[in-house]
Amino acid sequence: MHIAFVHTPIPLRNVENRGDYWRNFDTRYIASHPNVRPMRKVLWELPHWVPWLAGVLEQAGFDSMEALDFYSDCTVIDGIDEPKIHSRLVSHPADVYLFSPMTINLPQALRIAEMVKEIHPRAITVFGGVVATPLYTEVARHKSVDYVVRDRGEIALPALLEGLRDKRDLEGVRNLAFERPDGELAVSKLNPYLPVDEIPFPKVDIFPEETGQDLRYIRQNYALGCPFTCEFCTIQTIGRKPMYFSPDRVVAEVAAYRAQLGEHHHVYFGDETFTANTERTLELCNVLEREGNITYDAQTRLNCLRDVRLPGALQRSGCRWLEIGLESANAQTQHAFKQHTKLDPLEETLARLRDAGLPTCSYLIVGLPGETIDDMKRTLDWACSLIDRGLLHASYLSEFVPYPGTPMFDHPERYGMRLLHRQYDLYNEELPPVVDTEHATSEQVYDVFVEGIGMLAEAMGRTPALTFAHGQPSVDRAYGEFWQAN
Question: pTM of the entire structure?
Fold first, then answer.
């Protein structure tokens, strides 16, 4: 049985002010990452699910696998390069094609599945992941989808493929959703999660060595799951109770990825809240500090940075960029959607991180339910002020999207919202929002977003918030040129 992992493309969209924004953002980013190299094809990161599940399948005895990277080869404005994808599918036949799209590229994944069925009618298509799990009924009934693996797949995917290979009845396989011949939808119970110390080592060579030239960083996980319940976040689809890998396992994975893809690569920890457990974080920091050759980025929450030991430990262990989910300057928004997070200690916390030599980057969201246009503009003014005063190094800005798998998608009316459509490739944090709220229309929020991109671009274009011993990078190394051209 030959298995193909499909990395689905994401359509690019033109956004006003994004060229200047990314150029100024990346100038600041590269200043703190002097070893970053220009990407050849702008893949950004490996789709972590591919080496992860390839390792699971390899341990289960499957030895014929490949990764089809359509993300960097076939992304075009507003769509996919169907002739190119068609040609590659013809030359890469497989018995099973695996898909794990996000909401934004679910339509593209379904279209590629249709092409698989047209070119290889006997091939099996399997969907899973963060959007196929909450939308399993819709996805499983699609004409070109044979099976949906719900939730995590470390147990269910090998069981499914073994059943297909051995021509066994699949009714007893858990985590599955599929349409029976009579049109009835079969949905099985979910497996308990496999303990993280039993998850096989990722198959890091599923992507060839030259793929390393396309990456900005190596994505790594320290924990699976998040204890917080932000109602706009889809992390609930893979669990709310964090399970932690041992520091030795983390270091071993990083070493393996670097050996395959390039020793120069730094790491991006994909954990939703890297510092959620202070003692475990300090333990990992101690191990990384002893290693002494790993630099990394991480993301966390404001209320998970209270411990005064963290800034120094993070910096000494190689942290060079810390992303903090601030979302909004509105206290009511923090209370409603961020588990009562208080903004009072914000400036003290940012100053402590700055003084430890840690560049910080915020996540901001405009268009959250309950916020007025004035609330959104106050958030933008607030973030620009933090940048100007040297308390914040950079900031992302996105628009609120009620993703499938969140309460806001299932029950928008409870939040004073009206869902405008379910055209999922428009569930894009940089396009006009897919909801009207009680205080703002989609068009009004988008106007604030475009204005905000310009404001942040100007703020980040002023004097850098931090200085570095190796000096500032040259402008021609900034990745913003790519975004400006597209």
Answer: 0.93
